[in-house]
Amino acid sequence: MSGRNKEFNEGTALADAAEVFWVKGYESASTEDLLQAMGINKGSMYNAFGNKRELFLQVFDDFAKRSGADIKANFDKHKNPLDAVKEMFRDVARPTDPMAHKKGCFLIKILSEMSGMDEELAAVARQKLLDVEAIYLTYMKKAVKEGYLKGNIPPETLAKYLVNMWNGLNISRRIYGRKDLEKMVELNLEIFKGA
């Protein structure tokens, strides 16, 4: 007798679970919350994803891959990498989705929640941020090589600065309104004038 066919889309279920983790955090998200959001039963969840922790790791990995691909796509659509940086950070201040704006960055939220609580999950979150830093580094080196940056600030430092800027803005957007965020973004972008 063959196993029962899956009656749900795993990608959709992961996206639904991501929303629960993003809004509630890892610890506060109950298995019932996840099952309800994904529209599946406990057996289907365990068969497809494993337990809550295993599901979370899959959600987090999927989210990080999509985010990394989005960042690369943004850089690739601009000849000048600095134009991509400006667009990304200005978009933080001018979100198209007000709810996402209030939720902040999923990576930052999970890193903040897990630090000191679950070192393994915190290490996974840190690695995902380092992966983003590596993407930034690639494009900052390109900006120097192609003459968009003078090289006064090492590309490695600029990549770390961009991660720091992203982290700060994603926390600040939970506090400040659009006008204040736009001013902060423009002030932060000033560093590239002398770089």
Characteristic key phrases:
195 residues; mainly alpha; 10 helices; elongated; disordered N terminus
State the helicity in percent bands: over 70%
Please state the structural category. Answer: mainly alpha
Largest beta-sheet details: none
Number of helices: 10
CATH topology of one domain: Tetracycline Repressor, domain 2
User: Which residue ranges are poorly predicted, with pLDDT under 50 across at least 5 consecutive positions?
Assistant: 1-5
Shape: elongated
What's the average pLDDT?
89
Give Rg in angstroms. 19 Å
Count of extended strands: 0
CATH class of one domain: Mainly Alpha
End-to-end distance, in Å?
Answer: 66 Å
CATH architecture of one domain: Orthogonal Bundle
The H/E string reads: HHHHHHHHHH
Name the quaternary structure: single chain
Percent in strands: under 5%
Which superfamily, in CATH terms, is the homologous superfamily of one domain?
Answer: Tetracycline Repressor, domain 2
